[in-house]
Amino acid sequence: MKREDLSPEALVRRARQRLLFLLDKRDYTAWQLKMKLKRGGYPEEVIEDAVRYVIDLGIVNDRNYARRYIECRKQSVSLRKIEQDLALKGVNRELLKECIEEAGDTDERPGIMKLLKKRRYDAECADAAEKRKQFSYLLGKGYKPGDISYCLECSVSL
Questions:
Q1: From CA 136, how far away is CA 37, in angstroms rounded?
Q2: Is there a contact between 141 and 75 (Cβ–Cβ < 8 Å)?
Q3: pLDDT digits (tens, 9 = 90+) for 7-40
Q4: Nearest residue to 31 (alpha-carbon basis) of 41, 19, 43
Q5: Could you count the other beta carbons within 10 Å of the beta carbon of residue 100?
Q6: What is the distance between the alpha carbons of residues 3 and 127, in angstroms, rounded to a whole number?
Q7: Contact call for residues 99 and 67 (beta carbons, < 8 A)
Q8: 54 near 20, Cβ under 8 Å?
Q9: What's the pLDDT tens digit per position in 47-68?
């Protein structure tokens, strides 16, 4: 039976089931779920109803999603990069700022040092080309140039 042939109630029920199926596999933000249903051809009012349903059940919570995302990634990716990723996932900027503040410890140098150690960087043996290579890599990860420079010159871990 095609979606167009379903009654409005059946369509809402199917959209809710689709979201529950998706959420059984992994977490999503409310915006990501809306996009999934939109790509599936569901009408806007059905999408809003289905997303509101999973939010009301407590299954979807953008604040918790952002907190977990930050906690899992703050040791290997800059907070700036995390903020960009979450914004792309539809998390509100104000909510993002609150979650980052709640996460505490905004010093990214330990994360940089961890990545440099993982990449077997040695400040004492590194030539200018190696430093540029590592600098570019870390800049691509979203770290601040000042923090990167400090860590590249520092041979003692933080």
A1: 39
A2: no
A3: 878 899 999 999 999 999 999 999 999 999 999 9
A4: 19
A5: 19
A6: 63
A7: yes
A8: yes
A9: 999 999 999 999 999 999 999 9
CA distance 57 to 14: 17
Average of per-residue pLDDT values in the chain: 87
DSSP assignment of 38-106 equals HHTT--HHHHHHHHHHHHHHTS--HHHHHHHHHHHHTTTS-HHHHHHHHHHTT--HHHHHHHHHHH---
Q: 82: which residues sit within 8 A by CB, 6+ positions away?
A: 69, 70, 73, 74, 100, 142
Q: Give residue 21's Cα distance to chain centre.
A: 21
Q: Token pair for residue 18?
A: 């689709």
The overall pTM is greater than 0.90: no
Residue ranges of the domains in the chain?
Answer: 3-57, 62-103, 109-153
Please identify which residue in the block is written with the tokens 């999973």.
Answer: 54
Question: CA-to-CA distance for 158 and 152, rounded, in angstroms?
Answer: 12
Local structure of 139: helix, strand or coil: helix
- Across 38-72, b (16+ Cβ under 10 Å) vs e yields eeeebeeebbebbbebbeeeeebebeebbbebbee
Region of 2 (left: φ > 0; alpha: ψ -120 to 50; beta: rest) is beta
Cα distance between the two ends of the chain: 62
